[in-house]
């Protein structure tokens, strides 16, 4: 997630929907516990969120965004695929596409 994409795949850098969709989503799973991520951005085994928006998401949703912990982001974030059904679902629910 949050990698620039081209063609018929949405551009993550002008989206951010999956980072602002659910406070329960950016959890640490597997062996990765986010130890490289600053404490104030973490909470109870997941990324801290403000409402549904991950605290590490910078910028304006649907305009220009970036992940401030990109190199250390949780596995779930790494595996979320731009252009997937889930991607289009969260974009639709946040009003970023039809
Ligand atoms: S919802 Fe899709 S396009 Fe938007 S940031 Fe996430 S993966 Fe990228
Ligand atoms: S850690 Fe980064 S990629 Fe993962 S939800 Fe937060 S802002 Fe998005």
Automatic annotation (TrEMBL):
It comes from the Bacteria. This is YkgJ family cysteine cluster protein. It comes from Azospirillum himalayense.
